[in-house]
Amino acid sequence: MERGTLVLAGRSSAVLASRPLIGFAAMLGNTILIPTMAVAIKYLTVAGFTTIQMLGWRSALVMAVLLPFLLNRQIRQEIISADLKAHLFHATLSVASMSCFYFALRTLPIVTVTSINFTTPTIAMLLASLLYKESISIKGWLALIAGFLGALLVLKPDLNGISPDMLVVLVGSFLAACTNLAVRRMPARSSNFAVIFYLTCSGVIFFSLPGMLDFRVPLRSEWFWILMLGFVALAVHVLIILSYRLASSMLIGVLDYLRIIWALAFGYFFFGEEMSLIDGIGVAMICVSGLYTFSEGRLATQIISKPL
After folding, report:
1. Residue 3 falls within a domain, yes or no?
2. What is the mean pLDDT of residues 150-159?
3. Is residue 306 part of a domain?
4. Could you give the dihedral angle defined by the CA atoms of residues 152, 175, 193 and 69, in that order, rounded to the nearest 10 degrees?
5. Which letter, b or e, does each residue of 94-104 get, where b requires 16 or more Cβ atoms within 10 Å of its Cβ?
6. Using only C-alpha atoms, what is the Rg of the chain?
7. Which of the four, 123, 167, 224, 243, has the lowest number of CB atoms within 10 Å?
8. What would the pLDDT profile of 237-293 be if each residue is shown by its tens digit?
9. How far is the C-alpha of 196 from the C-alpha of 296, rounded, in Å?
């Protein structure tokens, strides 16, 4: 597989002709959409929505959009012929990771959750070394150490350890790294629609159905944020697919780090969140570590799902 292609691109994993400007624009859109969804999560938290309620509505809305596509015979065949075991494994990891970040955003600054999320490539590099015996260069080990030291600066452990919400973010990053590896091992015949469909099915099973036990109809003022969760979730999937199909995977991965800037800006503008000097140093170390991982090309075939 060449760099700059997505292992699950297209209905039949076909590779589109390179159109880097469109690919870059798609990823730039993603860097804005994901922090925007974080804003929606925080507003809904203030309104009293639980993590399960938010994820339940999110999954139900995306499923409502996907179901009409099943009228297409070819798409139904893709769903039926997909490797169910691989998709369920990937989807379970994805929804678990997603729930961690939704939960953490209730109390933590957007930029904190976002920056810890960017430890995912570093964790994935370590897991690939342990599980698949992929070698790590000396510079790679230095980048890995820098990433974890940066994470410690952001997490700020004290004598009582790491705060529970911070620990949840770290667990979410670990699960996202596992999702990376799961996608890399997924059969090439798996289509993009199948990945999104089974991921959404898992969300419905784990969140929408349990959410019925504590069902809540949004108020008129809350529908905007609820609909945004569903719209952004689907848009992120589509834009990720476009970006990795049309442009270099490494460059797209680098552009994704602009998300930290938007996270900082949105957090400050909407909620008055600020980042200390120590936090800034930690974020910079995480970014350097992650960017080196991308430069090594170890994760050239990137994930279709984002933690948010």
Report:
1. no
2. 80
3. no
4. -100
5. bbbbbbbbbbb
6. 19
7. 224
8. 888 877 777 776 666 777 788 899 999 999 999 999 988 899 899 999 988 888 777
9. 28
Q: Helix (H, G, I), strand (E, B), or coil: what is residue 129?
A: helix
pLDDT confidence of residue 68: 95
| Number of residues assigned to the chain | 308
Long-range contact set of residues 131-136: C-beta below 8 Å, sequence gap at least 24: 131/181, 132/181, 134/298
Contact 238, 196 (CB under 8 A): no
At residue 173's C-alpha, the angle toward residues 171 and 176, to 5°, is 110
pLDDT, one tens digit per residue, over 44-101 is 999 999 999 999 999 999 999 999 999 999 999 989 888 888 888 888 998 999 999 9
- The CA-atom distances, in angstroms, between 143 and each of 55, 135, 153, 182, 280 are 34, 14, 15, 23, 17
Could you give the CA distance from residue 183 to residue 153 in angstroms, rounded to a whole number? 30
Could you give the dihedral angle defined by the CA atoms of residues 229, 12, 132 and 175, in that order, rounded to the nearest 10 degrees?
10
36: tokens are 């925007």
Are the beta carbons of 52 and 44 closer than 8 angstroms?
no
- In this structure, is residue 305 part of a structural domain? no
Classify residue 237: in a domain, yes or no: yes
φ/ψ (deg, to 5) at 258: -65, -20
Q: Do 177 and 39 meet the contact criterion of CB atoms below 8 Å apart?
A: no
Q: How many domains are there within the chain?
A: 1
Tell me if 98 sits within 8 A of 55, measured CB to CB. Answer: yes
3-state SS assignment for residue 306: coil
**Which token pair is 163?**
């705060």
**Crossing angle, helix 259-271 and helix 20-46, to 10 degrees?**
30
Residue 192 identity (one-letter amino acid)? N
| Residues of the domain holding 107 | 20-296
What mean pLDDT value characterizes the chain? 82
